[in-house]
Write a structure and sequence with these properties.
- The strands form 4 sheets. The protein has a 4-stranded mixed beta sheet. Strands 1-2 form a two-stranded parallel ribbon.
- By secondary structure, the protein is of the alpha/beta class.
- It has helices at 2-8, 14-17, 41-52, 54-62, 74-87, 96-105, 120-135, 150-155, 186-198, 207-217, 259-264, 272-275; strands at residues 31-32, 92-93, 157-162, 175-179, 181-185, 221-223, 231-233, 235-238, 246-250, 277-278.
- It starts with a helix and ends in a 9-residue tail after the last strand.
- α3 (41-52) packs across α7 and α9 (186-198) packs across α10 (207-217).
- The structure holds zinc ion (3 copies).
- One zinc ion (ZN) binds at residues 165, 167-168, 170, 224, 226, 228, 230.
- Residues 30-287 form the USP domain.
- Belongs to the peptidase C19 family.
- It comes from Marmota marmota marmota.
């Protein structure tokens, strides 16, 4: 694709402009085993993401008090897995503990059962939700503000969606919601890169974030709330300050040919105000 060439150009490359910094994980790297028939790749990738996030890994390590579910306790299984990661001399470890706890925990829902393939992104989100319920079972996950809940404290983005008409000034009622992951289509992302190239825009460090934002709202037009005739883009406003912002890239087809292009050119820094609007509380942070 044309944009890959553009992005590889010295000085014009998104990948090169975003230098990896303090976000590099300090965790020792180890593999996870996936024997024939286990089909645990979805789980292993979710566990690897959690392990590599230093602030999550360290927080989980110091937490002990939780509502234990025994065989179905993902909290215990994850802590055991992380201890093995830390202390084992093996280069690759089995993820059986977490696999069994996940299968047991979701037995009634018939999800994540042993031997069956499942979705890595849904697994990642469900692990976080289960950690929430092990830590603060009494709280509604959507409204969780508990300081002891590392799932929501670290990952939850509290946003609201709203349409604001620049023509007549009308605005829709804000729709608040919480999410662990903001999903963005890789096809839409690549389309936005093509558009950017057509506009011959000068490279800016915040460009990757803006491409994600544009891809996230591509083709999503709403009617003006006062019916003035304008078509509006939805505005998503971030109201909290999550320690970890998770962007999930969605492959629109099982046979997408965009994999190499997307992976090669992922930026390593993300300019948050480029992806979502920030409520005024944050404006000072990004001046
Ligand atoms: Zn437990
Ligand atoms: Zn929580
Ligand atoms: Zn209007």
């Amino acid at each position: 694709m044309a944009w890959v060439k553009f992005l590889r150009k010295p000085g014009g490359s998104l990948g090169r402009a975003y230098q990896p910094g303090s976000t590099l994980s300090l965790a020792p790297t180890k593999g996870l085993l996936n024997e024939p028939g286990q089909n645990s790749c979805f789980l292993n990738s979710a566990v690897q993401v959690l392990w590599q996030l230093d602030i999550f890994r360290r927080s989980l390590r110091v937490l002990t008090g939780h509502v234990c579910q025994g065989e179905a306790c993902i909290f215990c299984a994850l802590k055991t897995m992380f201890a093995q990661f830390q202390h084992s001399r093996e280069k690759a470890l089995p993820s059986d503990n977490v696999r069994h706890a996940l299968a047991e925990s979701f037995r009634d829902a018939q999800r994540f059962q042993l031997g069956l393939m499942d979705d890595a992104a849904e697994c990642f989100e469900n692990i976080l939700e289960r950690i929430h319920f092990h830590l603060v079972p009494s709280r509604d996950a959507d409204m969780c503000t508990s300081r002891s809940c590392i799932a929501h404290q670290k990952f939850a983005m509290t946003l609201y969606e709203q349409c604001v008409c620049r023509s007549c000034g009308a605005s829709s009622d804000p729709l608040p919601f919480t999410e662990f992951v903001r999903y963005i289509s890789t096809t839409a992302l690549c389309n936005e890169v093509e558009r950017m190239l057509e506009r011959h825009e000068r490279f800016r460090p915040e460009m990757f974030a803006e491409l994600l934002q544009a891809a996230n709202t591509a083709g999503d037009y709403r009617k003006c709330p006062s019916n003035c005739g304008q078509k509006l883009k939805i505005r998503r406003v971030l109201m909290n300050c999550p320690e970890i912002v998770t962007i999930g890239l969605v492959w629109d087809s099982e046979h997408s040919d965009l994999t190499e292009d997307v992976v090669r050119n992922l930026a390593t820094h993300l300019y948050l105000p480029g992806v979502v609007y920030l409520c005024s509380f944050f404006s000072l942070l990004f001046l």
